[in-house]
């Protein structure tokens, strides 16, 4: 997926607002919607120890700010209604008033680019935008922000806007269409808080505590936390991580490109994106390329540096992720194609004579390389600039795979978006949570089920224990399937399906029939919203189904019978009396299998000579299939063990 240039934030723990700032957290703003029918947390910042009284809808409560200035009151539950005025008043006389507040249901929508895709980029956008007119549907957009530590409030407070033409176009299409569908049958005021970032991995949206529960993230978390106290030490530690990764992928080789090892080729003067070099192997290359140069220091310059003289390395822009070394020591790692890299070089790193500078540049989309007009140089404490010229390069083999990302990487690090975009929401009360993400994790689907489980659990902390969660399964995208094969996309869809099935208070929106195999951002978000709304209604106890899902598979004679739940009336095939998309697998291989559907089951014929151990369906990046129920919902992708 294309990665958006990040906003790099200072790696400091944010503190509550000063007394002269707003008393209320940024989500409490004009036109907000707050959650009905449960005690309502209202919170913010004041002077330490200061009493703050909050009033809303005839209810009031008082609390004292803690030593850090943070305060919270819990108002008695309010029924749906409004508009009301929310007022916070401190003992010092400071006050804040929020007008036109509705009490209703509030949903948090989050994920990556497909959740972020706005109404204006979707199907029928001209008509959809101009027909928006619902004052009871309010929307708040959380600006992009990453952080190395959890923030207490937003960099830029969100603004709430009613669903009207001037607001709907730029808002999340999937989130908006879900809410619009819900409003068709329930006129309760509805609030949407949207916090997404295109290209983001799920790990960036989880707190360190949740990541520890999900898997082995201790090293990344420790490195991230080290960066808050000692950035050069964290950079050195991360450099060692990259070196260990490289060595592991090269059969334990001693040394590597950071030491000048390997076969180097002179790079064009001025560098620039490698697709423009005229080198056939790089004309359409996505992957890692190592760059190398050296600078010479006098003994006096090296001695001054060793005694604590500051130095910095300016290497310009890199598309899109770099890890940079000086004399084999990591000095920095940044993601974002549009960001100029300037790295501090700690005392003692440089030496008299030749000093080797190596940059690993990882590109995953479109152009890659070191580019831009910025002059590349090593800058010494006395202002001396030593130009970085005569660059060489070597291409990392594709077989090595992608390197790990630095834990502070905006989109693929650990907790960076949780810290910058979710943590500032504090205990704001939500009705439910909608999640639309996964494309950036298809290269490592084996970890996704545990990560999604912890994401849903964490979003419920401080909320109702049974808060509904809605998950959009990945759409169909990629090359057509010509034979049974393994697929990271299929494996990730299965992780989503299993995590949702085990959750008990979650629903899955299957969309493998409405994607676009040639576009990772399918524009039919109206149907995505409708399927999310179906999930919300089912979890609210309404008699609706959310699409066929497998329950069991067992061998019956020369066939495997797969039974399904959540089937509207019965299963049906389109365009053929045969059910297309089924496979049976044994220990050796998977094979396409003839199948038919009967009521709520599929009967899959066992190919000659096979003793199947599992059945699967629509198992491909962009699967071809024709099985639906009578509500028009597709049979979703799955893999299931075959019992006796």
What is the subunit arrangement here? single chain
As for the CATH topology of the largest domain, it is Rossmann fold
- How far apart the termini lie comes to 42 Å
CATH class of the largest domain: Alpha Beta
Structural class: alpha+beta
The CATH superfamily name of the largest domain is SGNH hydrolase
> What would you report as the Rg, rounded to the nearest angstrom?
27 Å
Just name the CATH architecture of the largest domain.
3-Layer(aba) Sandwich
Estimate percent helicity: 10-25%
Mean pLDDT: 95
Task: Tell me the fraction of residues in β-strands, as a range.
Answer: 25-35%
Largest sheet: 11 strands, mixed
Number of domains as seen in the coordinates:
3
Topology, number of strands? 35
Uncertain runs are: 1-19
Q: Judging from the principal axes of the Cα atoms, what is the shape?
A: globular
Tally of alpha and pi helices: 12
Please outline the helices and strands.
Blueprint: E1 33-35, E2 40-45, E3 51-56, E4 59-64, E5 70-75, E6 81-90, E7 95-111, H1 113-116, H2 125-130, E8 134-141, E9 160-163, H3 165-168, H4 173-185, E10 190-196, H5 208-214, H6 218-229, H7 231-249, E11 265-266, E12 272-273, E13 287-297, H8 299-306, E14 311-319, E15 321-326, E16 329-335, E17 340-345, E18 353-363, E19 369-371, E20 377-379, E21 385-387, E22 392-395, H9 416-422, E23 432-436, H10 448-460, E24 469-472, H11 488-503, E25 506-509, H12 525-539, E26 549-556, E27 559-565, E28 571-573, E29 582-585, E30 590-592, E31 595-598, E32 601-605, E33 614-617, E34 627-629, E35 638-641
Parallel strand pairs: 1-7, 7-10, 7-23, 8-10, 23-24, 24-25
Antiparallel strand pairs: 2-5, 3-4, 3-6, 6-7, 8-9, 11-22, 12-19, 13-18, 13-22, 14-17, 14-19, 14-20, 15-16, 15-18, 20-21, 26-27, 27-32, 28-34, 29-30, 29-33, 31-32, 33-35
């Amino acid at each position: 997926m294309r990665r958006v240039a990040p906003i790099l934030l200072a790696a400091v723990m944010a503190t509550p607002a000063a007394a002269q700032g707003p008393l209320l957290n940024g989500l409490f703003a004009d036109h907000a919607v707050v959650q009905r029918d449960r005690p309502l947390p209202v919170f913010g910042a004041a002077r330490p120890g200061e009493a703050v009284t909050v009033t809303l809808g005839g209810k009031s409560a008082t609390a004292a700010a803690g030593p850090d200035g943070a305060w919270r009151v819990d108002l008695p539950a309010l029924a749906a209604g409004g508009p009301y005025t929310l007022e916070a008043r401190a003992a010092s006389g400071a006050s804040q008033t929020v007008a036109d507040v509705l009490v209703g249901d509030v949903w948090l929508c989050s994920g990556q680019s497909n959740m972020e895709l706005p109404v204006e980029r979707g199907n029928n956008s001209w008509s959809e935008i101009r027909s928006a007119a619902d004052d009871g549907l309010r929307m708040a957009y959380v600006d992009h922000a990453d952080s190395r530590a959890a923030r207490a409030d937003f960099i830029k407070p969100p603004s709430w806007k009613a669903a009207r033409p001037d607001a709907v176009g730029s808002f999340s299409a999937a989130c908006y269409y879900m809410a619009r569908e819900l409003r068709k049958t329930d006129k309760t005021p509805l609030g949407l808080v949207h916090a997404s970032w295109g290209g983001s991995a799920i790990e960036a949206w989880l707190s360190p505590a949740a990541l520890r529960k999900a898997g082995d993230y201790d090293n990344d978390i420790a490195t991230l936390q080290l960066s808050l106290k000692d950035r050069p030490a964290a950079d050195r530690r991360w450099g060692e991580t990259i070196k260990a990764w490289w060595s592991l992928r090269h059969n334990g080789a001693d040394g590597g490109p950071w030491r000048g090892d390997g076969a180097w080729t002179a790079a064009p003067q001025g560098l620039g994106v490698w697709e423009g070099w005229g080198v056939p192997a790089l004309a359409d290359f996505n992957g890692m390329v190592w760059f190398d140069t050296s600078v010479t220091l006098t003994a006096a310059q090296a001695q001054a540096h060793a005694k604590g003289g500051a130095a910095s390395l300016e290497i310009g822009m890199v598309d899109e992720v770099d890890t940079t070394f000086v004399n084999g020591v990591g000095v920095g790692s940044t993601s974002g194609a549009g960001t100029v890299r300037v790295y501090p070089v700690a005392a003692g790193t440089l030496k008299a004579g030749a000093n080797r500078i190596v940059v690993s540049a990882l590109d995953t989309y479109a152009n890659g390389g070191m580019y831009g007009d910025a002059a590349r140089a090593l800058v010494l404490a006395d202002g001396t600039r030593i130009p970085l010229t005569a660059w060489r390069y070597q291409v990392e083999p594709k077989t090595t795979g992608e390197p790990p990302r630095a834990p502070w990487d905006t989109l693929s690090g650990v907790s960076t978006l949780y810290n910058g975009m979710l943590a500032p929401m504090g205990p704001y009360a939500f009705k439910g949570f909608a999640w639309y993400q996964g494309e950036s994790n298809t290269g490592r689907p084996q970890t996704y089920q545990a990560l999604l489980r912890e994401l849903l659990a964490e979003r419920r902390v401080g909320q109702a224990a049974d808060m509904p969660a809605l998950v959009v399964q990945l759409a169909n995208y990629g090359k057509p399937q010509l034979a049974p094969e393994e697929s990271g996309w299929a494996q990730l869809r299965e992780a989503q399906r299993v995590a949702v099935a085990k959750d008990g208070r979650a629903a899955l929106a299957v969309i493998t029939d409405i994607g676009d195999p040639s576009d990772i951002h399918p524009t039919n978000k109206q149907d995505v919203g409708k399927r999310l709304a179906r999930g919300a209604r089912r979890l609210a106890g309404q008699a609706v189904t959310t699409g066929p899902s497998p329950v069991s598979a067992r061998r019956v004679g020369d066939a495997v019978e797969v039974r399904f739940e959540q089937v509207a009336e019965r299963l049906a095939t389109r365009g053929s009396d045969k059910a297309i998309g089924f496979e049976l697998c044994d220990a050796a291989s998977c094979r396409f299998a003839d199948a038919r559907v009967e009521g709520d089951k599929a009967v899959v014929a066992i190919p000659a000579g096979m003793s199947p151990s599992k059945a699967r369906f629509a198992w491909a990046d962009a699967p071809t299939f024709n099985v639906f129920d009578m509500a028009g919902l597709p049979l979703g992708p799955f893999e299931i063990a075959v019992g006796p």
